[in-house]
Amino acid sequence: MGKRSYLAMKTDPTTNEFIASDLKDLGNAAKKLATHAIKLGGLGFGTTFLQWFATVAAIYLLILDRTNWKTNILTSLLIPYIFFSLPSIIFSFFSGQVGKWIAFIAVILRLFFPRRFPGWLELPAALILLIVVAPSLFADTIRDIWIGVAICLGIACYLLQEHIRASGGFRNSFTKSNGISNTVGIILLLVYPVWALVLDIL
């Protein structure tokens, strides 16, 4: 009966170190991938949702100002707010031929038929006109970086403090008949820029 010979595999210590280092690198890469996926997926979706929400809140405040819930705040500032916070898909739609035709008709009506041009259409028409004629510096650059978000935040803060002052104090802004709806609407304007700036810092 012959003897069986076995070869003993010796493991070099440096090989173990290389394997451990590679595994550590793979773990770090997996963590970075998960972090970026969460940021671009979950948080990015949250930013887009809040952007739509802020635009709807701004339009809501414009409608309130044209109804019996009229306020003393400078609602014309909502136009640049909507300009900078408007979702890209809507902005692209109105900056194209559709927006140009709307702006053209609005200008014609305002110039030649001023009596037939309703007052409540002035601000929406100004918004469409602003979107159509905006230079690429504002339409393509500033809108997509933190400067546009900072402008939205500044407008929201100014409107909030003006509304509180016009209401006679912070408590009155929540207790008056038309205070709650306007206060909540303006606070909603703050959520999107604050969230977007925090993500930009992170």
Automatic annotation (TrEMBL):
The keyword Membrane applies. It is a multi-pass membrane protein. One of its GO terms (cellular component) is membrane. It is found in: Membrane. The chain crosses the membrane at residues 40-63, 83-113, 120-139, 145-160, 180-198. The keyword Transmembrane helix applies. It comes from the Eukaryota. PANTHER family: COLD-REGULATED 413 PLASMA MEMBRANE PROTEIN 1-RELATED, COLD-REGULATED 413 PLASMA MEMBRANE PROTEIN 2. Belongs to the Cold-regulated 413 protein family. This is Cold-regulated 413 plasma membrane protein 2.
